[in-house]
Amino acid sequence: MAAASVGSVTEPAFLAAVSTSYDTVADTYVERFPPSRLGPLGRAMLRAFAEIVLAESKGPVADVGCGPGGLTAELAGHGLEVSGIDLSPRMIELARAAHPELPFSVGSMTALDLPDGGLGGLLAHYSTHHLPPERLPAVFAEFCRTLAPGGHLLLGTHLGQDEHLRPTSGYGGHPVSYDWYQLPGERIAALIEGAGLTITARLDEPNPNGAGRSFAYFLARRPG
Ligand SMILES: C[S@@+](CC[C@H](N)C(=O)[O-])C[C@H]1O[C@@H](n2cnc3c(N)ncnc32)[C@H](O)[C@@H]1O
Fold this sequence. Notes:
globular; S-adenosyl-L-methionine; Rossmann fold; methyltransferase; binds S-adenosylmethionine; Methyltransferase domain-containing protein; single chain; 6 helices
């Protein structure tokens, strides 16, 4: 497979396509997708995740694929010590500008620059859908590796019937070159559990923005 350099790591070309595409759409994304876009159910899941992680205080939280950092800031507002990581340098620039009090860094969820077992929680909201499905076991294993025993994952993603989309424009007509995968919820749940995490709650909601695709939240815990 073709490789490209992302940060200091050599990664497959699909990551470069995601990074470049989100650099292109980042400024529009901030305007169109504020945290307030979350419906009441999504907000409730985010708050429940924060409460559980805070109560168990096993370590800080990483918001992986944080984009412009709106949800990172929401978690901080719930009292969590949180940092954001994203593949797109422009997204990270915008996150730093909007939330200078929070730490943000460029990085990939395929190889997190985080120690084993250090996180009390990991949020991946609307950020895993560009990974080819065959990459998901390794990424979910990476989430499990970085969580402390007893730490919690909150994964939010669109659902579908094994659809592989190749949009050429996004977020207001900007050119994009990423692929987009939508999997059935049962498959995502099985992949999360296959990585060694235990699903503790799942919430399916119709798309709060009114489009046809539904969205699901998976709350999972690293045993121990
Ligand atoms: C649709 S945005 C969601 C941003 C934010 N989580 C939210 O819900 O508003 C998807 C983000 O995931 C990031 N992303 C995609 N693949 C990634 C990867 N392998 N590692 C880190 N970030 C990634 C993109 O750069 C983009 O900023």
